[in-house]
Amino acid sequence: MANDFLYAHNSILIVAILFVLIMAAQEAGYRIGRHHQRKSDKDVKAQTSTIQAGTLGLLALILGFAFSMSLQTYNSRTEAVIREANAISTALMRTHLLPAPYSSLTRHQLQQYIDLRLALSNTNFAMVKEQEALATQTDSLQRKLWDQAVSAARIDPNPVTTGSFATALNNVVVAHNERNALLAMHVPEVILYLLFIVFIMSGALIGYGSGLGQRRTTLPAAILSLMICLVVFIIIDLDRPVRGIVKVDQHSLERLKQPSKP
User: Fold this and answer.
1) What is the pTM of this model?
2) How many CA atoms lie within 13 A of 46 on its CB side?
C-alpha cells in the first residue's frame, strides 16, 4: 500500500482533476478538429465517428471491469467481517466450557478484543500511528487469550471443553488475518491509470468530432464526462474500506457487544 500513489489522495480530488483533464482534452480536440474542418469530408467524419464509438466501447469495457473488481473486493471485506464476528461469537459461547477463573477472564478479554476490532474499523486512514497501536494491542491480546487457553487446558485437558475453546480461538486468529489481508487488497493502480488515459483520449476524440462538424455539443459532452467521473468515484470509493462514503457494515461485530442473556 505504501507504493499506491492514488490511494494516498482524496478520491474527490482525484475525480475533480480527472474531470478537468477530460474537459481540457475535449477543448484541445475541438480546436484541432476546427483546424482540420476544411480539409475533411464525409468519409473522414464517418471514420471519426466510428473511432469514437469504438473508443467509448473500450471505455465501457474497462469501466465495467474495474467496477466489478472494486465491488467484489467490497463484498469480500463484508463477508470477512461476518466470518470474524461468527468466529468471535463461537469463542464467546465456548468460554463457558472453561474452568474458573478462565471462563469469566477470557470472556472479558474477548469483549476487549471486539472493542479493538471495532476501533480499528472506525480509525481514519490518515491516523497511521493509531492504527499501528491498535494492531499491536490486538496481537498482544491474542497472545494473552492463547495463554489463558493453555493454562485452562492444563487444569482441564479435555478436548470437548478446553479443546473446543482452543479451536474456536484459533478460528478467531485465522479470521483476523484473513480480514486484514482483504483490507490491504485494492484495485491495481495500473488499471485506474489505464481508465484515466482512455477517458482523456475519449474526451479528445469527442471534441475532435465536434470540431469537424458545424455545431458544437458542449453540454451533452460535459454531462457524459461528469457521469464517467461519477462512476470512477464509486469505483475508488468502494476500494477504500475505511475512509470512503460506502463503508463496510460492522453490525455483525457490534451486535456482539450487547449483553447476552444467561
Assistant:
1) 0.80
2) 3
